[in-house]
Design goal:
globular, GPCR_Rhodpsn_7TM, 80% helix, mainly alpha, transmembrane helix, Rhopdopsin 7-helix transmembrane proteins, cell membrane, G-protein coupled receptor, Dopamine receptor D1
Length: 335
Amino acid sequence: MCTAVAGNLLVIGSVVKFERLRSRVTNYFIVSLAFADILVAVLVMPFNASMEISEKWIFGSFMCDIFNSNDVLFSTSSILHICCISMDRYIAIMKPLKYERKMTKFRALSMIAVTWIASLLISYIPIHSQLYTTHENALVLENNPNACTFVVNRLYAIISSSVSFWIPCTIMVFVYIRIFIEARKQEKHIRSASVCSNKSNALYPGRNSRDISDRKTMKREHKAAKTLGIIMGVFILCFFPFFSWYLITSMCKNFCPYPPILGKILFWIGYSNSCLNPIIYAYYNREFRQAFKRLLKMKSQFDSYNFNHCSSGDTKDTANVPLVYLNGNGGPTSV
């Protein structure tokens, strides 16, 4: 839980702090994804952990509906955000010349809004209206305030799993296969163009600076696509087992016995995805890795400054402490 919160706060802080990251539309999706993952860690994991430890629900029937709604809401939102990122990368790789015109800030924010609205519609409305569960489970929850079982009927199982996983997963796999094929073609083109460019530069120095810039942009997009591929792979590993189990057990009910511990393990494997995304950014994306290092270094320097300032304040007269202002670059300067 702490890893998910700290890691995703680093992601959000990096985009907010550094203009280079903030200027890229893709990172709008990444910030919203990080926010969803933080909410999973803060509003879902602790309640589930409490239920596992105490072996009962201690927060009442109303909070049970809130907990189940939040679980579906934030997990679905996280998955749909990854789908949006894959579509963004698809446009960047497949139609690079039209990318800035097609993927505007307004369009990105609209996609994010649709993602959150769709997640709300699949979670809070059916769960609070009791449309999601069976009649038998509704009676159990009504008569036993210490129970918070998430038993769904067949219709909700099909609709929710399709919206939350199967449809987005199908889109992502199709999109990434297309991205991979196109990226391989472009890499071959880059290598051949690089050879021609070197020969041309020998004859006409500076003539192909635009081509070099285009190739750098293309390489950056390919690295972003590689990071997306890793995020997608981890996402499928985390959620495919859960949604397969969720759909199968909802369809065959009592005819598919399974050990209770299996469902608990699959839930937590799904939750772990919220912790892994920041680690993937830090390891595979150089810009985020550098931003994380700079943020952590700034925090370390700030803590050190506060410690030294407080320590000196215990032994020195405050009248002798120089005034400290910030210069134009944000650094301290004494007067």
